[in-house]
Amino acid sequence: MSSSLPFIGQQITIYGGSIIIGAGVIGGLFNILIFLSLKTFRESTSAFYLTVMSFVDIGQLVFGLFSRVMIYGFGIDWNASSLPFCKIRLTLFLICSVVSYTCLCLAIFDQYLSTCTRPRWQQWSNMKTAYRLTILFTFIWVLCLIPYPIFLEHVILPTTGAVTCTIINTSMALYRNYFIDLFLTGYIPDFISVLFGILAYRNIREISYRTVPLVRRELDKQLTVMVFVQVIINFITNVPCVTMIAVAYATSNITDPVILDILQFISTVTIVIFYTYFAVSSIIN
After folding, report:
1. pLDDT of 102-116, one tens digit each?
2. What mean pLDDT comes out for the span 221-231?
3. 8 Å CB contact between 9 and 1
4. pLDDT for the residue 283
5. CATH: 1.20.1070.10, 3.30.200.20, 1.10.150.110, 2.30.180.10. Which one for 2-284?
6. Is 167 helix (H, G, I), strand (E, B) or coil?
7. For 28-33, which contacts have Cβ atoms below 8 Å and span 24 or more sequence positions?
8. Highest mean pLDDT among 98-102, 205-209, 248-252
9. pTM summary value
10. pLDDT > 70? residue 211
11. Over residues 27-51, mean pLDDT
12. What b-and-e string marks burial along 82-116, b requiring 16 or more CB atoms within 10 Å of the CB?
């Protein structure tokens, strides 16, 4: 049974990944078109965050999943054939990933502020603040990821003789494995987005009892529900993948081929599930 798991995982990546890329890119482009064409959304800070998120989500699919489909489906691995491509691709993928999670957290936090009862907090929900926060966090994440491409190198695997693009510096590997993978793009944004998603949703349930213009009330409801659904889908699709990454780090010393095949299969499935977030979130918007 275990001998067939790599093949099944390969087919899931090829066909499932192709569908996700098509749906995610087309849906993301439609989201961008809608958010930029309608004045109501152009003046909304949450819609601004979702617009930026749509751009970087397309980048995640192109720099992340597309390369996997090319490797499994056609045996084309540009990471192994070109070191500059390896450095650029993985760095851009991580930038897109962390900016996407940041925008999701900012969007749901913005909805919490705009729907809260305190006018002073509501004032923080404005386009000027949204622009500044997006630029600030993007700059911070770029600084955090500057060392990443420096330590990426081509390594020949002793077991298969294949060339892989990976980090050989121990300190940088720990920085990537635990800070970037598990926390920066893992559990931290999941926790923040779920927490403020619940708080914003609670505010929306109470908004009908306040003296708020009908148009504003309905727009807040629409945006909060839209972002909250994205938060839930992200949590469901991201937590299994991050957890499997943690399991892979904890079981790195295992040499049993049967167990390795099982772990690799589960990892492949959770990665595909992780990418379904981009296709599903594009459709529900």
Report:
1. 999 999 898 888 887
2. 79
3. no
4. 59
5. 1.20.1070.10
6. strand
7. 28/54, 28/55, 28/57, 28/58, 28/61, 28/278, 28/282, 29/54, 29/58, 30/282, 31/282, 31/285
8. 98-102
9. 0.86
10. no
11. 84
12. eeeebbebbbbbbbbbbbbbbbbbbbbbbbbbbbb
Backbone angles phi, psi at 31, to 5 degrees: -60, -45
Instruction: Report helix, strand or coil for 144.
Output: helix
Tokens of 207: 């908004």
- DSSP conformation class of 176: I
Residue 62 is which amino acid? V
Using the predicted structure, report yes or no on whether residue 49 has a pLDDT greater than 70.
yes
Angle at 270 between CA 80 and CA 61, to 5 degrees: 55
pLDDT in tens, 139-171: 999 998 888 888 888 888 776 777 888 888 888
Report the distance separating Cα 248 and Cα 271, nearest Å.
13
Q: Could you tell me which of 214, 274, 209, 269 has the C-alpha nearest to residue 242?
A: 274
How far apart (Å, rounded) are the C-alpha atoms in residues 178 and 73? Answer: 30
Q: Which residues pair with 184 in a beta bridge?
A: none
Dihedrals φ, ψ of 153, to 5°?
A: -140, 160
Positive or negative, the Cα torsion across 239, 222, 25, 51? negative
Distance CA 238, CA 271 (A): 9
Here the tokens at position 171 are 């300190």
Q: Are 43 and 82 in contact (CB under 8 A)?
A: no
8, amino acid identity:
I
Domain ranges of the chain: 2-284
Give the residue carrying structure tokens 């958010």.
35
